[in-house]
Amino acid sequence: MALPMEFWGVEVKAGQPLKVVPGEAKILHLSQASLGESKNSKSSDSVPLFVNFDGQKLVLGTLSPDKFPQLAFDLVFEKEFELSHNWKHGSVFFCGYMTVVQEGYPFAQIYILMEFIHQLDILCAWT
Amino acid sequence: MALPMEFWGVEVKAGQPLKVVPGEAKILHLSQASLGESKNSKSSDSVPLFVNFDGQKLVLGTLSPDKFPQLAFDLVFEKEFELSHNWKHGSVFFCGYMTVVQEGYPFAQIYILMEFIHQLDILCAWT
Amino acid sequence: MALPMEFWGVEVKAGQPLKVVPGEAKILHLSQASLGESKNSKSSDSVPLFVNFDGQKLVLGTLSPDKFPQLAFDLVFEKEFELSHNWKHGSVFFCGYMTVVQEGYPFAQIYILMEFIHQLDILCAWT
Amino acid sequence: MALPMEFWGVEVKAGQPLKVVPGEAKILHLSQASLGESKNSKSSDSVPLFVNFDGQKLVLGTLSPDKFPQLAFDLVFEKEFELSHNWKHGSVFFCGYMTVVQEGYPFAQIYILMEFIHQLDILCAWT
Amino acid sequence: MALPMEFWGVEVKAGQPLKVVPGEAKILHLSQASLGESKNSKSSDSVPLFVNFDGQKLVLGTLSPDKFPQLAFDLVFEKEFELSHNWKHGSVFFCGYMTVVQEGYPFAQIYILMEFIHQLDILCAWT
Questions:
Q1: More confident site: D41 or C6
Q2: Distance from CA of D53 to the nearest CA of C (A)
Q3: Shortest CB distance from E9 goes to which of D58, D61, D117?
Q4: How far apart are CA D45 and CA D14, in angstroms?
Q5: One GO molecular function term (chains A, B, C, D, E) (predicted)?
Q6: What is the pLDDT of residues C21-42, one digit of tens each?
């Protein structure tokens, strides 16, 4: 059985923006970002996180080893987007989950019921 | 296939309140606010965020480059509202997602079933 | 079309407890509290927030201009409650959303199907 | 009409573990814990919170008047559990909400449809 | 009656990665991590948390007795994963809940309706 939700996680390296394409009928729920381990970082580093969506560049938040090693989101992406940061001392890990949009739900049910009513109409006509 | 959720994000500049209209049968879920990058800001700046809704001005929270570079919300707006702030050194980015209210759901289903029962009544009458 | 969720926000002034009644078939989701602006406050103020529900007084959390200017909740209230605080230097803003409990859902559907079966029984009897 | 969600809140006193039984077909959603008011507490107190579930004792988190006066959870309990802490200077307030699991949903609907099909079989047999 | 959600909690000891298998048709929602009690820890310890999923090792976040004794997640795991950390002075507790994916929902309903329509076809043919 296909499950409706799947774990999703990526490592985004400094200076290497990562393009993400959720895929047909899928929605990606972005839940969090966290700084990776680093030996050289200054704890006072300020690491803004960026998302590029539909030609627009937005700041998602700012991490810092000392004060904000992680950050929670409640965001969804239904089409291509790009994650990036400029932390020179390591990676940023983004996690969340992918959900499959059940095609036509609840419209499929309604369609089938309409079909059904149509069948009954035929039934009525035949009786 | 139309997806039930879509990413939504805006940049609100200092002194430029932004009016947002979710649109017919849509609900905007406001998930977060984050300070943009700034070279001149004092890290101790205190940046209150305001929402104007239905003639009422409310404080949504207070950001600060040093202590609160971002802020999570769990709010919905079903009609026009206005976001604003007075941070002199940069923009505030608001993100969330738009959901489409499936028209009449679950009432459509019930309506169709009622129609169906009505059809059967007719069927009963004809038999 | 009536939307299933509506923004909700109030200003609670010091020493002026605010009674909230969600209303028939409604549930209020309390999402956050934030300190209003204040010129006289000491940043070290400690502002406990209280809720009175069903004769019980509970602490919802503690705000402070310096350390906790806002606070997120995930609470629901299905009947009358009262919000209060004792911050002498300003208001506390509470926000969230109101949801309408769709009457009888999913029981309405089941009821209608039962009605339908009953109709069919009659149909059976008549045939 | 019975509402699907109800506010839930308790005061847990120091050294007085509190047993909670959600009840038949109910799920308790634990949303938060907050320290009560206290005149004698040192602001540097560290107050671990414990849950006992199914014979297992787990740490839910650690509060402190100075740094963490409250804590958000996203936990559910479908059967008996016990909350406790050892803060000598006051109570800890736990809040959340109770949800009623709609019996048999969506199985009830399917069952009724099956019944319905069975009725139709009888109808077929009779015609 | 089987409930749709069940509390889930584990203790992960230092140097003892814990493999978790949600099980057939189950999804584990990971809600939080918290440091256990410890007498010897330095409050400035930095404790990165790791997850191994599908051959990929990701940083989930970083705890610290002093600054981040707990951490909230909004993650799901639909298949085997492994949690680990290297805190030498105690355990990390992970909590969340298990949800049972209702087999075939909503497809079961649609299937049954289709069956039903098929029955009616037969009925039509017989009348």
A1: C6
A2: 22
A3: D58
A4: 13
A5: hydrolase activity
A6: 999 889 999 999 999 998 776 7
Residues of E in contact with D53 (CB under 8 A): 7, 9
Compute the distance between CA of residue E45 and CA of residue A42 in angstroms, rounded to an integer.
16
| D93 vs C: CB within 8 A | yes
Tokens, residue B64: 């600060």
Give me the residue label for tokens 């047999």. Answer: D125
Nearest to D109 among C48, C74, C110 (CB): C110
Closest CA to C73 of C85, C87, C53, C59: C59
The candidate with the shortest Cα–Cα distance to C70, out of D49, B51, B82, is B51
DSSP string, D68-81: BSEEEEEEEESS-E
Q: How many angstroms separate the CA atoms of D58 and D18, rounded?
A: 15
Q: State whether ipTM is beyond 0.90.
A: no
Instruction: Flag whether residue C14 sits within 8 Å of chain D, measured between CB atoms.
Output: no
Looking up tokens 């629901």 gives C76
CA distance D69 to A62: 24
Cis peptide before E106 (omega within 30 of 0): yes
CA A125 to chain centre: 50
Mutating which of B95, B115, B124 best tests the A interface, going by the most A Cβ atoms within 10 A? B95
Tell which B residues from 96 to 125 touch C, by Cβ distance under 8 Å.
101, 103-104, 106, 109-110, 113-114, 116-117, 120-121, 123-124
pLDDT digits (tens, 9 = 90+) for A91-109: 999 999 999 875 544 444 4
Give which of B14, B25, B16, B21 is closest to B105, Cα–Cα.
B25
With a cut of 50, say whether residue D110 has pLDDT above it.
no
Tell me the shortest Cα–Cα distance from B49 to chain A, in angstroms: 16
Residue ranges of domains in chain D, CATH in brackets = 5-126 (2.60.120.340)
- Which of E71, E72, E117 is closest, CB to CB, to A119? E117
- Average the pLDDT over B30-41 and give the result: 89
* pLDDT classification of C101: cutoffs 50, 70, 90: confident
Count of CB atoms situated within 10 Å of the CB of C64: 20
- What is the DSSP secondary-structure string of E34-55? EE---SS--TT--EEEEEEETT
H-helix or E-strand containing B41?
none
Residue found by looking up tokens 């570079």 in the block: B69
Which chain A residues touch E124 with a CB distance below 8 Å?
Answer: 119, 122-123, 126
Query: Which residue reads 């009262």 in tokens?
Result: C82
Which of the 8 DSSP states describes residue A90? S
Shortest Cα–Cα distance, A60 to chain B (Å): 6
